[in-house]
Design brief:
This protein has 494 residues and is an alpha+beta fold. The protein contains 13 helices and six strands. The chain has a four-stranded antiparallel β-sheet with strand order 2-3-5-6, with no helix packed on it. Strands 1-4 form a two-stranded parallel ribbon. α1 crosses α2. The radius of gyration is 50 Å and the shape is rod-shaped. The N terminus is likely disordered.
Length: 494
């Protein structure tokens, strides 16, 4: 069947301009499904949901991040105070002053030492040596001050951090389940859209077929009343019919012409709608395979009531089930806010200036590893209120799902009844056709024999038209009721 549909589509695509494109119901569905914009949107939503699910999977895996920074500060970090720096820079001077203070405490001893040094000529040498020691101490103190100079006004730093979640209160598991449900929801939504497009295409298809049959019926009726009008005009000329009867028949001809025009307009508009649904130009010349069929309702369906099948297959119910489950997972994510969270952390950090070997203007780094534990203590009931709100949303979703099930059960019962009713109407219409044909045959025979007036013939023709129209409506009703039942059961094959 799929190969046959593809062959029809290929043949239709290669038709020359102005040629009629022959389309079956299956090929109309295939074109509509291929060109429907909302179905394309549904496919994109499925891709979005699939990527979201893949993203949620990555939450189980370790994440690696890199950080780099440069910072300039107006002041540098100093490990020595200004007083300590001053003391170290003047270390020799301060030591000399301290010695002088100590010697000043014994003036007699100092005078004796000075006299002895003068006698030996060593006083000048001692003074020179003291000045040298003072300079060396001051220089050493300055070096110490310079060694503690950090120069942290220009700071470069970088790190690589690896984080591995261990326990997040169940939020990651719930998030992944939500992502999977979201993907199922997108698939069910696409299936519902496909069934809706197929259902709308079937309705438009059978609408065109119905109008085409009614057009043929209206043209046949117009031919009947025109023949009657010609016969009545001849009878008026021969004096066996009145002018009033002729005017009545002429009015009937005008009504029949108006009916033909109306059905033609309706047929054009219906084909434009069908072409738009299939993605074809609205002025495309198309011919439907069932336009010339004698009996539209070839197979009548006597359905068995099967609500369980509808509940199992309907994508709308599956979507509501997905919504309920997603709401439950959202509640679990909210509950995770009150549970402890544990993660392993590790990485490598580097900086310049470096603190690894004193303060050096070089890049040095070190490895690190640790455990991060977060325990919520008090949040003023924030998580509790969110959990309650999420449970309320779950309850709402459950009630909406239950209500949808009840409506679907009612819909299945109604469509099952409509199928049986359509079959009965078709049987009654076929019986009415036989009576109308016999009535019209008898009226025409009596009119030819001159025992029945034109008015009676027109009434018989009108009754025949109504019977034929009712038969077409009944046949289309049988087809549409079958489509309705398949849609209600969720088995409408796209």
């Amino acid at each position: 069947m799929n190969r046959f549909i593809g062959f029809l589509l290929l043949v239709g695509a290669s038709l020359p301009v102005g040629a009629q494109r022959l389309l079956t119901l299956d090929s109309c569905r295939a074109l509509a499904l291929r060109n429907n914009k909302q179905l394309s949107v549904s496919k994109l939503k499925q891709e979005v949901a699939s990527n979201i699910r893949k993203s949620a999977r990555t939450k189980y895996l370790p994440h690696v991040s890199a950080l780099g920074t440069y910072q300039y500060t107006s002041e540098e970090i100093s490990l020595l105070s200004n007083d300590q720096k001053s003391s170290l820079q003047n270390l020799g001077t301060n030591v000399g002053s301290a010695l002088k203070g100590a010697l000043a405490a014994s003036p007699s001893e100092l005078m004796q030492l000075a006299t002895a040094l003068s006698a030996t000529g060593s006083l000048g040498a001692l003074q020179q040596m003291g000045a040298g020691i003072t300079g060396l101490l001051n220089s050493g103190g300055q070096k110490i001050v310079d060694a503690f100079h950090t120069d942290t006004r220009n700071l470069w730093a970088g790190s690589i951090l690896v984080t591995q979640p261990v326990f997040m209160g169940g939020s990651i598991v719930a998030m992944n389940k939500m992502a999977e449900l979201g993907e199922e929801l997108a698939a069910n939504s696409a299936e519902a859209r496909r069934q809706t497009v197929a259902y709308s295409t079937d309705q438009a298809y059978w609408q065109v077929v119905s109008l085409k049959h009614k057009k043929r019926l209206a043209e046949g009726f117009l031919a009947l009343v025109k023949k009657l009008d010609s016969d009545v005009q001849k009878m008026i000329q021969e004096g066996v019919a009145t002018r009033s009867e002729g005017l009545s028949v002429s009015v009937k001809v005008s009504e029949a012409e108006m009916a033909v025009q109306q059905v033609n307009d309706g047929l054009v508009l219906s084909k434009m709608l069908l072409c738009q649904m299939m993605g074809l130009p609205t002025n495309e010349a198309i011919t439907l395979a069932d336009e010339d069929a004698e009996n539209l309702a070839v197979v009548t369906l006597h359905p068995q009531l099967n609500v369980a099948q509808a509940i199992e297959n309907r994508p709308e119910l599956k979507m509501l089930d997905n919504g309920v489950e997603m709401s439950k997972q959202a509640t679990r994510i909210m509950k995770a806010g009150n549970l402890p969270q544990v993660a392993l952390m590790g990485g490598y950090a580097v900086s310049n200036p470096s603190l690894v070997n004193g303060f050096e203007k070089k890049f040095h780094g070190f490895w690190n590893v640790g455990v991060l534990v977060r325990v919520p203590i008090w949040n003023w009931g924030d998580v509790m209120y969110k959990v309650r709100a999420s449970k309320g949303a779950t309850a709402i979703a459950s009630l909406e799902r239950d209500e949808a099930r009840e409506k679907i059960e009612l819909q299945v019962n109604q469509t099952t009844f409509k199928v049986d009713e359509a079959n009965k109407r078709l049987a009654m219409a076929e019986a009415g056709i036989k009576r109308a044909d016999e009535n019209l045959r008898t009226a025409n025979l009596g009119f030819q024999e001159g025992v029945i007036s034109p008015t009676v013939v027109m009434e018989a023709q009108t009754a025949w038209l109504q019977a034929q129209s009712q038969k077409i409506d009944a046949e289309i009703s049988v087809r549409l009721s079958q489509v309705d039942l398949q849609k209600a059961l969720g088995v409408l094959a796209p």
